Amino acid sequence: RIEKANKYKDKVKKIQSLISYLLLRYVFKKIEIDINSYEITNLNGKPVIKELDYHFNITHSKNIVAVIISNESIGIDCEYIDLNKDLAKVSKYALSKEEYLEFLDTLDKHKYFYKKWVIKEAYFKMLGIGLSKKFKDITLDSHVFEINDSLNNSYYLSTYPAIIDIEEINFIDINC
Predict the structure, then answer these.
(1) Between vectors from CA 76 to CA 72 and to CA 81, what angle results, nearest 5°?
(2) 115 phi/psi in degrees, rounded to 5
(3) What is the CA radius of gyration of the chain?
(4) 108: Cβ–Cβ under 8 A, 6 or more apart, which residues?
(5) SS3 48
(6) Confidence (pTM)
(7) Could you report the per-residue pLDDT of 38-70, keeping only the tens digit for each?
(8) In Å, how far are 46, 108, 133, 138, 172 from 175, measured between CA atoms?
(9) How far apart are CA 30 and CA 75, in angstroms?
């Protein structure tokens, strides 16, 4: 895991990579599975443990790292709500025509955009196809949680399929 983390040049990305793995180990340990006995491989860009009947997914953004496991395929995404980000280009790439029109009409464009983004990314991560598909080709709705880190940064977090209880998600504020 350290070798993989060291491939990142950015210190925060290295820390996120290491914390992600430790959190994954912790979550599996809670259900009495020692994942050190298994190999985590990559299947179409999605991390998997072939020998287990559990699916998992990991996300990190800024100071948050989150892990979710399930008996069925699942995806999770968390994004820092960056109010300074220029959404002009990315909104055309990520939003369907209907969503883009709603985006143009909404007053809080950043919140609208990030809600749609985390739902779609969680969905694509569940499928194991990452960003290889065009986000604008689908319109999805799901539950979105707003969470804050210890520095009071705001994030949106979503899973696909949707869960309705944030207590089912294990996340850590790494405060980088």
Answers:
(1) 165
(2) -60, -45
(3) 16
(4) none
(5) strand
(6) 0.89
(7) 888 877 767 888 888 888 999 999 999 999 998
(8) 26, 26, 32, 34, 9
(9) 20
